[in-house]
Design brief:
Length: 233
């Protein structure tokens, strides 16, 4: 049963509708228009919680849901949590205002894929299911949904790598190669390769002979993520 607690979510209606579609794929969550505003509810946030506990729980949930939705594509759309509300038995609401906003991003859902008459589980639905019990996956999705930077791409890569036996494990699974990992690492780390955006400022460190571009690096990390998710049941 969905909680009586709800989080008012603000943003462009098309983006919130896309996030609502993602929530509709799970019986645990709902993001729908009520009383002229978008409200996020979840069965994972207990109705007996106080507002001090319900607020961060729903804000964290909104971040996780947006990370899952954003992983289906590269578009980053912003939405923010507003007030916290609670529906009373008589249908009216008590509202608790929390001033600190949290920025999240959502992505429209991909179409249904059917192979030989079998409907494949959409990527965002599978991610929604898996990330709830996989901290490494959740962390990777979170940093892929952050602002595009060498710092965030490397932070997204690390939990993918660590969950699969390190760099050697990624290579053994055929998801990447040692030269590609080395090229990505040296580009991200080296001031001579990417200037102020680099993770380190060691002038003596030599860049790779063929530095990878930032958007190409994002494609690289996402490709490994996709192969990892495909391998999970």
């Amino acid at each position: 049963m969905l909680s009586s607690w709800y989080l008012v979510v603000r943003g462009n209606d098309p983006d919130l509708a896309a996030l609502g579609d993602l929530c509709a794929s799970s019986s645990d969550h709902s993001l729908a228009q009520e009383a002229g505003e978008w409200r996020l509810r979840s069965s994972t946030v207990g109705s007996t919680l106080g507002h001090e506990e319900a607020w961060p729980a729903l804000c964290d949930l909104l971040v996780h849901l947006s990370d899952v939705a954003a992983s289906a594509g590269y578009t980053r759309v912003r939405a923010v949590p507003g007030a916290l509300g609670r529906t009373r038995p008589d249908g009216a609401s008590d509202v608790f205002v929390h001033p600190e906003p949290i920025r999240v991003r959502v992505q429209a859902s991909p179409p249904t894929v059917v192979v030989n008459g079998t409907i494949l589980e959409p990527m965002e639905v599978k991610l929604l299911r898996l990330q709830a019990s996989n901290e490494h996956l959740r962390l990777a999705l979170h940093f892929l949904n952050a602002d595009l930077s060498w710092f965030n791409l490397w932070k997204a890569f690390e939990p993918i790598r660590d969950a699969n036996g390190g760099a050697a494990g990624l290579v053994a699974r055929g998801w990447t190669s040692e030269p590609d990992i080395d090229r990505f690492r040296k580009t991200a780390n080296t001031y001579a390769a990417v200037g102020d955006a680099a993770r380190h400022a060691i002038l003596a460190a030599a860049p790779p002979p063929n530095p990878i571009g930032l958007e190409q690096a994002e494609d690289y990390v996402r490709a490994i993520l996709t192969r990892w998710v495909d391998s999970l049941a």
